[in-house]
């Protein structure tokens, strides 16, 4: 068997497709027939130094894939399968893996490291393989160096796989000691030192206790800083990666080291290899991220009781940091704006400068202005571009008051540069900067407008002209127009854009039709700008938006007529379909209500026909966009939407079944709600199918969890639409709601993300209850709901006691209390009076500052009074 | 272990337009969900308050509620809870209740597809009112919100009587005209039935439901102890030649006051709507031309307009149709406030209108209108009254439109047989 596996593994990498396929099938068969034997022979293959490197590497890879999968459900299966193997097989496999760490072949050692970490990820939480860490640590003190290197690498991967709380602190200490010692300058072997540095990067999450201890922290920091000075570039890079990670994980511990770190990073940015310099800049970007977050929390709370205080590292570093970053801006690459994947020191420096501006606000301005003023008119395009980029980067952060005068003075200059500068690069950055000006300094919240009657015409003319420039420049002009339109979002009945509306729309359509529109995202940017212009338009221009309907529909129609297309062409076609559906969605929302509704709805049949054809194409994005558009159309059409249902229904079902592209599923769930509200009881014939799908979705382990709360809300939409006919779904939906309610009542507290999810789940459940109660109101079948009342009241009580619900949940919850009382009336009067919700919770809501909560509470109070008075 | 990717977004917006569309959709959906929820809740509370309003008035809430309504825009006032509305008094109450009824426009030209898309019925003469039955009692309120009768009825939940009326908490809302002469509520529309809202149903369905459900309850029976007034469904017809003829000339148990035309596809829309039309002439109504306070037809047509800022005069339509302006000095001198309703006479210069806008109107100032009025006149009313005095729309015009439509329908058949 062992011989055979070698050959199969080699054949599985054959250039000959038939051979390869045959080998793959044989491997699969082997795995299915005898899992233990299969895994064991793979491990044996990996450990055997007499075997070819290629078969050993693939053996390790297949083994790894048998232990882990990206998809949660599959991963769970694999874990269970491994745990079910007999102990002797597992012991043999573990032994093979550990043995492989001593192999002279580097690739094989590295593969074994990863497999060991995967096994540890499964076994350590189960308290299995307890001797693993001890035996790895014993390797550390062994020679030769390559074993030490492989062991450190394994420890690194292990820290990545395993959660810190399943490793004893004693072992954590030993792992960190081994790793940090390996990083030390005293370690003569560079491979060992590199492996140790990379391992520390992964192990930082384990070092919480050690970072709280001054001596241990000093030691770790000293070793990391020393490693940034290593003669080996890869070690320096890895050491800076550690610093970046420390910046966000241990921000509050850095005060003592920040001056030294500044010196190290400054030196690296100025002198070191770009790969190292990028990490050094990233350190400061991460510090800014932290401080921006902390200050935002301060700002929101007014009390300044954030867990972590702001140390204002960025502000203190300004005099040194800003010149450092400005220098990097002059190191642009010639064609960086044409290359989607480009990332270089100038880009990183500018990005960091933008973050610094956000973190320190007004204080950055005097540090940057001299640079801009000096370089903005220089003959060398690099200087002009760097000056413009610096200017654009600092527009978010400082106050409008601080920037207004500067921006007003610069505006004419920028418009001029956009027209006349010979450099594509300068124009790109100038157009981007204009966009930033409109994004942050134009709009209803700004006191003195940047765009006035005097300059509006010129700005628009220049932007439209720029849209004819090279694709990358034109794309930025579209972006600027996007924000220009957005600034007039709440302008009222008369928009300054009205006189230019037709011209803007025409120009954007021409841009979208340029032959080179697929370069630099230009076409996407053009449609996005078009959407924003339409979204922010006023009634004055509704006739022009109406005229756009047949134009966009024709374009969508044309994409559906495509002949035989290459893969690449098809992909572009699908992308275009998504854009056009998105555009129609925006138009529907604009025109779908009075006074344009009647005119608009004349096109509805045709439009719906096109959307249905889009479902015939295979593209998740296009499906999602078409679905969103249909939701908007259903809302506009109201009960008339019923005529589309027979044809549309199968696509609705398809959307609800789309687990993999969960965004499509989520959007479809939302559309079911739209349809319920549009059709009301006319949705009844489709409800069996829809409910079946929704229940399947809820039971699925494959579906992304974020879709589940909206599915519950959707139950409410359906119940509200079909009223007592929801009866037949009660026996399926109520138990699901009940178990989800139990889960969400107490699963709080883990972290912010979990609390947020728990609250969205609660909200979904509560919306379902509201819809069901209101749906059954005044029906003779109301009685059917009485048995659920005790549980629901208990659920309300328990989320009230948890004290971690947000305002949205609070409002929905108190509403449910009212709905329950309203629908069940005197049947539950006594029960309600016993609940905490009907007293403390209700009183708390009645005195809420949030008027929507207060309103819901008043309604609940009224309904309860009635229920208990009878 | 490979180095870690640190690329940050460069010259890019933090969220894509697609993400923005997604978020806006979610926002829209959750807004609509809570609107639907709110509507369902308000339906119930309307009943609670309508019958309990006389007994429990909290002066504090009364004080709070009025200013809230004042600053309310159209959308706010429509979601305004009936519970609070019942505590309103005077003009606020009138305005609120008037908004709950569907108000026909006056027919100033004949709509298309009359015979296919419209019903016609003879409007009984009498007081238009909202009848709500719930929790064992029935209350009728006239257009200005004041209570007409408070009585037991055989409507669902309309009397404190065990039996056929269904569950205790069911309720109904009917749109009626109370006909003094035979003390009967003639039901012209059904808004809610047994707690089931018909607001979002077409007229076709509402009329069908009205005809089939009303009789079931015994509401059409003669008055008795638990049923103080008789109800009767008004007969309606498809608006073809026969239907128009029946409504116009047919003999009915009540005195007619014009013809009502309902578009079959229209929902119950509160406020003025062009999908319900009223038309009158001398032979089907006693009151074709408006009378003054003494019940006499004045020599000149009187109209009431609302004064807005800068002296602008407008109708009650939404959006309002502007008339001429009052001279600013004049407004100041007479102490007129914006929002006042002002009565004018139309002089010999008459009215001139182009495309639904008044080009020229010879208005003669009379004075501030009667305080009981909540609204200015609508455009269609002014025009109908003006036409009635000069060149009325005749029943023959309606009939000829219908026969013309029928011919048009037949034309293609003729061509095909050629």
TrEMBL record, chain A:
Its main location: cytoplasm. It is found in: Cytoplasm. The keyword Cytoplasm applies. Residues 23-103 form the Importin N-terminal domain. SMART domains: IBN_N (SM00913). Keywords: Cytoplasm, Protein transport, Repeat, Transport. PROSITE patterns: IMPORTIN_B_NT. The keyword Cell wall biogenesis/degradation does not apply. InterPro entries: ARM-like (IPR011989), ARM-type_fold (IPR016024), IMB1_TNPO1-like_TPR (IPR058584), Importin-beta_N (IPR001494), Importin_beta (IPR040122). This is Importin subunit beta-1-like isoform X1. The gene is LOC104728578.
TrEMBL record, chain B:
InterPro entries: Snurportin-1, Snurportin1_C. Residues 1-22 are annotated as: Disordered. The keyword DNA-binding does not apply. This is Snurportin-1. It comes from the Eukaryota. The lineage of its organism: Eukaryota, Viridiplantae, Streptophyta, Embryophyta, Tracheophyta. Its main location: cytoplasm. Keywords: Cytoplasm, Nucleus, RNA-binding, Transport.
């Amino acid at each position: 068997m062992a011989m055979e596996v070698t050959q199969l593994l080699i054949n599985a990498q054959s250039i000959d497709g038939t051979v390869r396929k045959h080998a793959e099938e044989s491997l699969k068969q082997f795995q299915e027939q005898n899992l233990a034997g299969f895994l064991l022979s793979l491990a044996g293959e990996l450990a055997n130094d007499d075997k070819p490197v290629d078969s050993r590497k693939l053996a390790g890879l297949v083994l790894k894939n048998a232990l882990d999968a990206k998809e949660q459900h599959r991963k769970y299966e694999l874990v269970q399968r491994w745990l079910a193997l007999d102990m002797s097989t597992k012991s043999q496999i573990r032994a093979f893996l550990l043995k492989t760490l001593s192999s002279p072949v580097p690739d094989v050692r590295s593969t074994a490291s990863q497999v060991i970490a995967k096994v540890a990820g499964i076994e350590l939480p189960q308290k299995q393989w307890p001797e693993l860490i001890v035996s790895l640590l014993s390797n550390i003190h062994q020679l030769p160096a390559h074993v030490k290197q492989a062991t450190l690498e394994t420890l690194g991967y292990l820290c990545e796989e395993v959660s810190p709380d399943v490793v004893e602190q004693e072992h954590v200490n030993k792992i960190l000691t081994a790793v940090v010692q390996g990083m030390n300058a005293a370690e003569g072997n560079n491979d060992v030192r590199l492996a140790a540095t990379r391992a520390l990067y992964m192990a930082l999450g384990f070092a919480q206790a050690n970072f709280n201890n001054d001596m241990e922290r000093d030691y770790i920091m000293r070793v990391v800083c020393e490693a940034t000075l290593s003669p080996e570039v890869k070690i320096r890079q890895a050491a800076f990666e550690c610093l970046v990670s420390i910046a966000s994980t241990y921000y509050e511990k850095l005060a003592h080291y920040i001056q030294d770190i500044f010196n190290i990073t400054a030196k690296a940015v100025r002198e070191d290899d770009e790969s190292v310099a990028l990490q050094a800049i990233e350190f400061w970007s991460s510090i800014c991220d932290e401080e921006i977050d902390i200050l935002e929390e301060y700002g929101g709370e007014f009390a300044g009781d954030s867990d972590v205080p702001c140390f204002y590292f960025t502000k203190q570093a300004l005099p040194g940091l800003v010149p450092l970053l400005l220098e990097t801006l002059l190191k642009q690459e010639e064609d960086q704006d044409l290359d989607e994947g480009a990332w270089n020191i100038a880009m990183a420096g500018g990005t960091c400068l933008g973050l610094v501006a956000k973190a320190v606000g007004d204080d950055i301005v005097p540090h940057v202005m001299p640079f801009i003023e000096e370089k903005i008119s220089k003959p060398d395009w690099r200087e002009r571009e760097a000056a413009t980029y610096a200017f654009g980067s600092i527009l978010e952060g400082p106050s409008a008051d601080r920037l207004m005068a500067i921006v007003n003075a610069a505006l004419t200059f920028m418009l001029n540069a956009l027209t006349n500068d010979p450099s594509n690069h300068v124009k790109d950055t100038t157009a981007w900067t204009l966009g930033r000006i409109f994004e942050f300094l134009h709009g209803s919240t700004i006191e003195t407008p940047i765009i006035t009657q005097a300059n509006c015409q010129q700005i628009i003319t220049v932007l439209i002209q720029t849209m004819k420039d090279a694709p990358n420049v034109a794309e930025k002009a579209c972006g600027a127009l996007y924000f220009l339109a957005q600034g007039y979002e709440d302008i009222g009945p008369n928009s300054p854009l009205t006189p230019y509306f037709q011209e803007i729309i025409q120009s954007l359509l021409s841009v979208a039709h340029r032959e080179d529109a697929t370069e630099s995202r230009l076409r996407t940017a053009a449609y996005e700008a078009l959407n924003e212009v339409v979204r922010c338009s006023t009634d004055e221009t509704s006739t022009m938006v109406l005229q756009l309907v047949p134009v966009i529909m024709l374009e969508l129609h044309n994409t559906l007529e495509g002949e035989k297309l290459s893969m690449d062409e098809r992909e572009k076609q699908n992308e275009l379909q998504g854009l056009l559906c998105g555009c129609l969605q925006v138009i529907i929302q604009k025109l779908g209500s009075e006074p344009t509704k009647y005119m608009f709805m004349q096109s509805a049949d045709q439009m719906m026909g096109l959307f249905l054809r889009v479902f015939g194409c295979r593209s998740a994005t296009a499906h999602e966009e078409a679905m969103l558009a249909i939701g908007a159309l259903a809302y506009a059409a109201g009960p008339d939407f019923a005529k589309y249902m027979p044809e549309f229904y199968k696509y609705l079902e398809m959307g609800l079944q789309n687990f993999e592209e969960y965004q499509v599923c989520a959007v479809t769930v939302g559309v079911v709600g739209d349809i319920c509200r549009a059709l009301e009881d006319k949705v009844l014939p489709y409800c069996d199918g829809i409910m079946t799908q929704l229940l399947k979705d809820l039971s699925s382990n494959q579906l992304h969890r974020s879709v589940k709360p909206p599915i519950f809300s959707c139950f409410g939409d359906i119940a509200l639409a079909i009223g007592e006919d929801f009866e037949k779904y009660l026996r399926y939906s109520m138990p699901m709601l009940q178990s989800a309610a139990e889960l969400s009542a107490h699963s709080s507290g883990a972290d912010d993300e979990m609390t947020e999810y728990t609250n969205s789940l609660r909200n979904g459940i509560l919306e379902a209850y509201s819809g069901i109660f209101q749906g059954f109101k005044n029906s003779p079948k109301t009685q059917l709901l009485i048995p659920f009342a005790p549980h629901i009241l208990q659920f309300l009580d328990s989320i009230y006691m948890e004290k971690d619900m947000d305002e949205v949940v609070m409002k929905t919850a108190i509403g449910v209390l009212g709905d329950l009382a309203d629908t069940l009336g005197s049947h539950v009067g006594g029960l309600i009076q016993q609940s905490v919700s009907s007293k403390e919770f209700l009183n708390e809501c009645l005195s809420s500052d949030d008027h929507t909560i207060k309103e819901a509470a008043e309604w609940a109070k009224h309904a309860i009074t009635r229920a208990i008075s009878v | 272990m490979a180095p870690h990717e640190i690329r940050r977004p460069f010259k890019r917006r933090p969220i894509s337009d697609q993400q923005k569309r997604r978020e806006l959709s979610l926002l829209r959906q959750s807004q609509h969900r809570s609107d639907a929820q709110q509507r369902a809740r308000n339906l119930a509370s309307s009943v609670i308050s309508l019958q309990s309003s006389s007994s429990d008035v909290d002066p504090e809430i009364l004080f709070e509620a009025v200013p809230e309504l004042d600053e309310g825009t159209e959308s706010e006032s429509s979601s305004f809870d009936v519970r609070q509305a019942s505590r309103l008094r005077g003009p606020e109450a009138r305005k609120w209740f008037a908004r709950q009824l569907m108000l026909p426009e006056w027919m100033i030209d004949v709509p298309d597809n009359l015979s296919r898309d419209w019903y016609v019925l003879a409007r009984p003469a009498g007081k238009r009112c909202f009848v709500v039955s719930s929790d064992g009692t029935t209350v009728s309120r006239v257009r200005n919100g004041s209570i007409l009768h408070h009585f037991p009825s055989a409507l669902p939940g309309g009397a404190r009587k065990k039996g056929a009326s269904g569950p205790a908490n069911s309720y109904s809302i009917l749109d009626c005209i109370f006909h003094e002469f035979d003390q009967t509520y003639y039901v012209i529309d059904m808004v809610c039935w047994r707690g089931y809202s018909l607001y979002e149903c077409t007229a076709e369905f509402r009329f069908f439901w009205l005809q089939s459900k009303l009789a079931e309850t015994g509401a059409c029976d003669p008055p008795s102890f638990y049923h103080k007034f008789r109800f009767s469904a008004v007969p309606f017809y498809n608006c073809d030649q026969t239907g128009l003829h029946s409504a116009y000339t047919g003999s009915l148990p009540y005195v007619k006051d014009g013809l009502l035309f309902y578009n079959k596809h229209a929902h119950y829309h509160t406020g003025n709507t062009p999908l319900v039309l009223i038309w009158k002439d001398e032979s089907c109504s006693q009151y074709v031309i408006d009378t003054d306070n003494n019940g006499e037809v004045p020599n000149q047509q009187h109209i009431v307009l609302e004064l807005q800022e800068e002296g602008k005069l407008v109708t009650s339509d939404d959006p309002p149709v502007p008339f001429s302006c009052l001279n600013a000095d004049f407004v100041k001198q007479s102490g007129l406030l914006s929002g006042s309703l002002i009565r004018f006479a139309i002089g010999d210069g008459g009215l001139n209108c182009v495309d639904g806008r008044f080009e020229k109107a010879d208005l003669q100032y009379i004075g501030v209108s009667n305080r009981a009025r909540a609204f200015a006149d609508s455009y269609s009313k002014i025009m109908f009254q003006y036409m009635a005095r000069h060149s009325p729309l005749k029943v023959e015009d309606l009939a000829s439109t219908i026969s013309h439509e029928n011919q048009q329908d037949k034309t293609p058949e003729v061509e095909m047989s050629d």
